[in-house]
Amino acid sequence: MKREELLAYIWEEKREKVIGGGSYPIGISITIENLNFHWHTVIYGILSALMKNPKQALEWSRHWGRTMVWLHPNKSLSFKFTEKKSPEEKLGVLVDTESIINPVEFLNFHYNIGHFKILLNWRRLSLEGAILQVSRMVDELVWCNFLKLKKHKINKLSEIDIYIDALNEVWRSGILVEYLPERQILDMKRKNMSLPVRIYGNVRKNKKVPKVIGAVVIPQSKTDDELSDCKETLKDQQEEILSVIDGSQSQLRTYPVLSTTSIHNKESCICTAIILAKKLHTGHLLLLGFADLVRRVIGSNRPLYLESNDSGKRIFALINRMMEEYKSSAESVISSLVNRRYSPEEIDFCYRTRREQAETFQEVQKKLKRNKFNLLAVMNEKVERDLKLYGFKQVSIIPDSICLQKHDELIELVKEQQWKRNLGFRFVKYIQGKHKKMAILEKRSVPTASAIRAAFVNTVLSLNKVDATPIFIDADPSVVQACDLLGLVYGKNLLRLEGAAIGFEMKIGSGTAGNVISAEFLYRLFCKEFSEKRYPNFFLSVVTFFLLTRYATAKAHKEQALAKGHPIGVSFYDYKNKQALLNDFLLCAKELLIYNNSIKKAKQSINSLISKGYKGIEFKEGRDNKKNKMFLTRLEKIGAEKIFDQIFPTPKAESVSNPLRQVREAIHRQHSADDSQLIDRIIIELIIHGHDTVGELSNILLSKRLIHKPIPGGKNQKLSCIFVENLKSRGYGANVEEIINHILSYLNGDFCLLKKKCIYFEILEDIIAFTDDVISLDNTSVKIIQKALSVCIKKLNFS
């Protein structure tokens, strides 16, 4: 029988295992932190985990034994069952090495004794692939022994009891491991078709695990006397191995206590990151607009530093796609990119249609894993031109390829925690306060986003030779770890502030998928309405005004209700469709023109007071004089803010108005919790259709017998709901059912509305309101207001 025919035959030998139904949710997680183990550590570690929970183990094995090899912040060496997508599994990171090993090196012959035998297909493979190979065959051995015992005991014992017997028998008798060439294993199968041979069915992982994993040999049962020669030795070895596993502890670096550095100074460095292999879209525009706002507000005279991601998997996939598109070799495509022979349109197209699974992808990855070429020079230059056109005066683009030197420096500084040899998977584990953490620095010899972010910031600081605290504008988790890495390795602070994004239909948009409006298109449309000659530098001002006046949507964590103050996801400016976004952006521009007039009137009002030469302070009748005087005191200190959270306070989720909240509570008290969704739906629908007073709502609900007594409160009191008007402004007004469902998602805490805050915008609005209240001011107070007004206008880039 030929190899492929034999493999097909073996694949059909399911040996009572479950076929189909998707991946089983329970798996065994094998945690490793160093290379101080051998195959019998893995073998008896897995068997121990199976014996602790045999009922779960039986089902795990019946479903082909899902196994992960990972690194975990809270463990050094362990073998335990975990549930897919559980908090524990989310903390772990799969080991992903590049170098291949000879698995025989991990076979310690001192421990290689036993009655049962595992025959492993010998070939050089990755570390994690070799561990998975061993774990699969341990599962296969126990399962085959279970089936053997089942033939004789099924009428006497339950399946679980038989499985326990099979486990105990394997544990007591031990396992001997032998590596053989695949050909020899398959020849043994041809001679004995009952020999259990296991092959790997997951094609995506065949590069890590051999197609033919191995075979198991279960000899005829021996008596205890026949096993006595090795029984005591085996028991001692198993106890020793379990003791090593139980006593293993992580080697942790201690996170240093960092000294805070002033951020409100001219030396501050504002950073953000974008993959510039595609053209800028509106999400990028808002992100960069917010980063530039932070730069101006902080008072930095440095440019906005933009990291251009020109390395990593997505860029490998871009090269791979260009090889296919232009029928060229990897070297030719790389050379053409470096020498600017492709247009931005060609690069953009290939990036959006990139492929990661083609055969040539691995070849590209090997050539570019330590990429020190400026592959995206053409795109970087285009972005610089476009941003200048949009009003960004100072932007410095730094490619990742330039940052690799700093990445290598980072690796050197943490290498004492690395494995004894470089397998292409690098990490650092540390303790910060009471929390154990880890950061992955490389996978398959390619720097991770976290490590390259840290290297980028360190490059920016070294270029400027400054000691100011850098600020990274991005919500990506990689930036959080980059903050930790800079503190851990270099003792430097890195502040992080969430950026901005665009979304449609309550989901964040994707530039690659093409469902976000390009920045070019938005700018051209804008210039048709507001010519650059008449309104110079107005476009960026509108972007800033948009960021500070429009509500963003964020998804609350499903397992943690927003109402309890738990974290939320990344916020984004959500719209029904692209047209709704375009309409609102143009409306925002018109609103800014009106707002600029309000600023102008406030200026004129203040100037008129100084021309009249008033000596005292007087406010209009009925105004809060104490509050206004406190405001004047506050203005004296403007520009001296040092604490970042005071300059950009954390946004708070919007909630319903007090009258509506009180009405909802009053109605819900008359109903069970099961009816709350229905009641909310009715209230919202009535408000949408104009029945927006307490009296109207009460009468309608009474007539429908949904309440038993009138709602307390003033009958003419208006019930406004911020979610109704907000959703209409985002283009959701046409479909009443849709808008009701979205409002319910906000009321239930599935989503929330947030608005970015900036102290200077708040002060500017307060100054405009203040000028309406004041009748007379002394010259000192006028000068304070004039200065504050000037500071706010300059920082916000309003006219």
Write a short abstract of this structure.
The chain has 29 helices and 24 strands.
Write up what this structure looks like.
The radius of gyration is 33 Å and the shape is globular. The relative contact order is 0.08. Strand 16 (about 470-475), helix 17 and strand 17 (about 495) form a beta-alpha-beta unit. It is an alpha/beta fold and about 800 residues long. The strands form seven sheets. Strands 12-11-10-16-17 form a five-stranded parallel beta sheet, sandwiched between helices. Strands 3-1-2-4 form a four-stranded mixed beta sheet. Strands 6-5-8-7 form a four-stranded mixed beta sheet. It starts with a helix and ends with a helix. Among the domains are: about 5-245, no CATH class; about 270-310 and about 370-500, 3-Layer(aba) Sandwich (Rossmann fold), CATH 3.40.50; about 500-605, no CATH class. It has 29 helices and 24 strands.
Protein traits:
alpha/beta; five-stranded parallel sheet; 29 helices; 24 strands; 799 residues; single chain; 13% strand
| Helix-and-strand structural type | alpha/beta
Which percent range fits the helix content? 40-55%
Low-confidence blocks of residues: 559-566
Main β-sheet description? 5 strands, parallel
Rg value: 33 Å
- Per DSSP, the total helix count is 29
Q: Which word captures the global form? A: globular
In the sheet with the most strands, the strands line up as: 12-11-10-16-17
Using DSSP, what is the number of strands? 24
Overall mean pLDDT score?
A: 87
Please report the distance between the alpha carbons of the first and last residues. 83 Å
